[in-house]
Amino acid sequence: MFIELVDALRCPRAHEESWLVLAMSRIEARHIQEGTLGCPVCHAEYPITEGIVDLRLDDGEGARAPTRDTRQAPGLVDQVPAEHLAAMLNLADALGFVVLAGEWGRHANVLLELDPLPPLLLVDPPDDVAMRPGLSGVRAGARLPLAVGAARAVAVDDVDAVRLASAAQSTRAGGRMVAPGQALVPDGVRELARNEHVWVGEREAASSAPVRLHVRRG
Ligand SMILES: [Zn+2]
Q1: Whole-number Å distance between alpha carbons of 202 and 192
Q2: What is the model's pLDDT at position 129?
Q3: 147 pLDDT exceeds 60?
Q4: Among residues 5, 84, 128, 152, which one has the fewest Cβ atoms lying within 10 Å of its Cβ?
Q5: Cα-to-centroid distance, 46 and ligand 1 (Å)
Q6: What is the Å distance from ligand 1's center to 14 Cα?
Q7: CA gap 23, 34 in Å, rounded
């Protein structure tokens, strides 16, 4: 977990948004390897192990919910090469981090060769993708545990409406979102293009009421 991304993480419990406090840690090359994130609101603690933060809710007895099976679009990642994904996500500069959810994490090692390279945050990374400099990982429930508008772009491999809505909410205005073709485009996202496998959309500006321009004549 790249230390600068900790600011973007949020406690998954239903309470007011609050950043998380890094309690103790082993850090290598500005990436936290082992440690704990604590929530100052509900006092939940989330472990960091082998560079991955576990932000799944526990059952009250310390056991975490199982990782979600997001393979609802089998073979999707094989159909969309990493370079194509990078183009759809508009990763032309290193400003802001990119979320790759589920199976999209398989493209991380190719994307790490991009120059310039934005930080990559893998949500529910595949078991065989290890964290390394440039790669951060979290395990999560259906909702992405991120601040509103925190990510520059998000790729989702899932058709779950809760995850799609939270992915849209986590993407900054003007940022890109990529999801399986079967997934409904969530509110606040404008579809830009689609092929037989995926659609790509753009996060629209703030969800507040649209500003109307009143033209007065007289
Ligand atoms: Zn909390």
Answers
A1: 7
A2: 93
A3: yes
A4: 128
A5: 10
A6: 7
A7: 10
Residue 9 has pLDDT above 90, yes or no: yes
DSSP E strands in 40-170: the ranges are: 45-49, 52-54, 98-101, 120-123, 135-139, 151-155
DSSP-assigned states of every residue in 26-45: EEETTEEEEEEEE-TTT--E
Q: Residues near 147 by Cβ (< 8 Å), separated by ≥ 6? A: 7, 8, 9, 10, 17, 19, 170
- Cβ-proximal residues to 87 (8 Å cutoff; 6+ apart), any chain: none
The predicted model gives 158-168 an average pLDDT of 95
Edge-to-edge, what's the strand order for the sheet holding 31-38? Answer: 21-28, 31-38, 45-49, 52-54, 135-139, 120-123, 98-101, 151-155, 171-180, 198-203, 189-194
Rounded to the nearest angstrom, the distance between the alpha carbon of 85 and the centre of ligand 1 is 33
DSSP letter for each residue of 184-208: PPPTTEEEEEE-SSEEEEEEPS-SS
The token pair at 171 is: 């993407």
**How far is Cα 37 from Cα 6, in angstroms, rounded to an integer?**
9
Residue for token pair 């491999």 = 157
Distance CA 137, CA 181 (A): 25
Gap from CA of 158 to ligand 1 centroid (Å): 25
* Token code pair at residue 48: 């960091």
The answer to whether residues 43 and 23 touch, using CB atoms and an 8 Å cutoff, is no
